Amino acid sequence: FPLFLQVTCNCFTISNGEMQDVGVGLYPSMSLLNHSCDPNCVIVFEGYQLLLRSIREIQIGEELTISYIESLMPTNERQKQLMRQYCFECDCLFCQNQEKDAEKLAGEEHAWKEVKDAVNEMKYPKSKEEWKQVLARCQNLLSSDMSHLPDTNIYQLKMLDCAMDACINLECWEEALYYGSRTLGPYRLYYPGNHPLRAVQLMRVGKLQYSQGMFPQALETLKEAYNIMKMTHGTDHSLMQALMEIKEQCEAIMRTQ
Asked: Does the keyword Ligase apply (predicted)?
């Protein structure tokens, strides 16, 4: 039991190139890093290799911090998760000021609670039919609650992400781009500056724009992703190499037009 608790408190969630969870691992030296809801570093993975990347200028003597949890939660939910899993309360400025809580829960409460319940109930689909069911539910909720919830509401944003994933898996590229484009503003709000999640989302939208022949828009989106990803992933990362490849293809097409 003590070993189980030590693993729970010290393990890192291993993610793939698109920041999707694929497992957990123990990295003893990285477990020394403390938490902040507004950290100066992020963890990214290259396979099972853990990379610690700074996302802003760090002063001499400044402590290196990472976020132990997904920051796209209101302050009280972040505090509950930190206490439940790590047994402490966060007192960073982000929590003290309840930063962006109003935007995260914007809209009518009954509407976002319905969307929140739906998001929590959804399990990762294993077949095309299950993806179709997920997309149908997303479409229904997004259309019925569109007048009540702004896209900055975090549960609406998660629903848009889910709809985008479903469309990509069903190869509905145009509709995937519609949902993905709607996420970019909220991602900019909640992941300002250099953040790997924002870089990956920009890359996904840029690839969709490219697939639809929107080459000028795709190039701008991919450039924005590139500028962030060179900080969050580094130029040698495999995802960065894939981004550079599609960006160069887009530039070549633009030169011939």
From this structure: no
CA atoms 29, 35, 41, 44: torsion sign: positive
**Residue holding tokens 């039991």?**
1
Judge whether 199 and 193 are in contact, CB under 8 Å. Answer: no
> Can you name the residues that pair with 46 across neighbouring β-strands?
49
Indicate which CATH number applies to the domain containing 52.
2.170.270.10
For residue 215, how many other CB atoms are within 10 A of its CB? Answer: 17
Residue-wise pLDDT for 56-71, tens only, equals 999 999 999 999 998 8
Q: Collapsing DSSP states into helix, strand and coil, what is residue 230?
A: helix
Q: Which domain holds residue 151?
A: 106-185
Locus of tokens 């580094």: 234
Tally of domains within the chain: 3
**Cβ contact 243:204 at 8 Å:** no
Domain boundary among 81, 98, 115: 98
DSSP track, 21-86: EEEEEE-TTGGGPEE-SS-SEEEEEETTEEEEEE-S---TTPPPEE-SS-S-S-HHHHHHHHHHHH
Report the predicted TM-score, pTM, of the whole model to 2 decimal places.
0.90
